[in-house]
UniProtKB/TrEMBL annotation:
GO biological process entries: D-alanine transmembrane transport; L-alanine transport; L-isoleucine import across plasma membrane; L-valine import across plasma membrane
SMART domains: AAA
Name assigned to this protein: ABC transporter ATP-binding protein
Organism: Sinanaerobacter chloroacetimidivorans
InterPro entries cross-referenced by the UniProt entry: AAA+_ATPase, ABC_AA/LPS_Transport, ABC_transporter-like_ATP-bd, BCA_ABC_TP_C, P-loop_NTPase
Domain ABC transporter: 4-252
PROSITE patterns: ABC_TRANSPORTER_2 (PS50893)
Length: 254
């Protein structure tokens, strides 16, 4: 059984069919790419998988569980975390605080214990800080823990965003254009980083990405969307040599 699977998910906005009958599957420890020209429907697909949108039709399955239309927070709790195309950090907070806040999802407590700060709450909070620090060590941001997140270079902000997603203990990571705005060196570093966290955190990853060097470098399988339609699926070699893909996407200057 696939870890995550969509069955003919379709999203219509009025007369616009943003995604039509998309069938994506993600197996354990795979890194899968979702590519296509601007407006092809990639982010809409992510929004349906992560619960931001309820598909007009079709199903999203997490193992054998139907998660179609569940709330984003419930889907995150099941172990599906995502990042966004536009970086969404708490700019004025430190690097460590950004990760601690993401960790709160896993802090089981009621509001009274957090206001009164019961010993149990304080212990959980301390362990959350420790866990966040350990996470920062693993992603190579520990020495920047007290820096305000906005002061980080762009590549490190992206890495922090991924660390925030990892703080929710996901099994599946959805990355929306992680290499956006990066220079070739930063994208190369990111590629190695993604492959490393897949192994270290036992993740399965679905990523939207425009940088072909990144997609072809780390994705085992790739789906190509064009105007909401899946025009190809295959390994990097098959995708690079598919005439429909070349016409729809690779031939277009980004
Ligand atoms: N909330 C919405 N309301 C109406 N139309 C939408 C909405 N969200 C997306 N669309 C439309 O759906 C289509 C797919 O958009 P989407 O953002 O999913 O594409 P994308 O492949 O992620 O593009 P990009 O690479 O530019 O991010 C576009 O025509 C877009 O205008």
């Amino acid at each position: 059984m696939s870890l995550l699977r969509t069955e003919n998910i379709t999203m219509k906005f009025g007369g616009v069919v943003a995604v039509s009958n998309l069938n994506v599957r993600l197996e354990k420890n795979e890194i899968i790419g979702l590519i296509g020209p601007n407006g092809a429907g990639k982010t809409t697909a992510f929004n349906m998988i992560s619960g931001v949108y309820k598909p007009t039709s079709g199903k999203v399955l997490f193992g054998d569980k139907d998660i179609t239309g569940m709330k984003p927070s419930a889907i995150t709790k099941l172990g599906v975390a995502r990042t966004f195309q536009n970086i969404r950090l708490f700019k004025e907070l430190s690097v460590l605080e950004n990760v601690v806040i993401a960790n709160h999802l896993r802090l089981q407590s009621n509001w009274i214990s957090s206001v009164v700060r019961t010993p149990d709450y304080s212990r959980k909070e301390k362990s959350m800080y420790d866990k966040s620090m350990a996470l920062l060590e693993k992603v190579g941001l520990a020495d920047l823990k007290d820096e305000k997140s906005y002061s980080l270079p762009y590549g490190k902000q992206r890495r922090l965003e991924i660390a925030r997603a990892l703080a929710t203990d996901p099994g599946i990571l959805l990355l929306d254009e992680p290499a956006a705005g990066m220079n070739p060196q930063e994208s190369d570093d990111l590629m190695h980083f993604i492959a490393r966290i897949r192994d270290e955190f036992d993740l399965s990853i679905l990523m939207i990405e425009h940088h072909m060097q990144v997609v072809m470098g780390i994705c085992e399988r790739i789906y190509v969307l064009d105007y909401g339609i899946t025009i190809a699926e295959g390994n990097p070699y098959e995708i690079q040599n598919n005439p429909r893909v070349i016409e729809a996407y690779l031939g277009v200057d980004e």
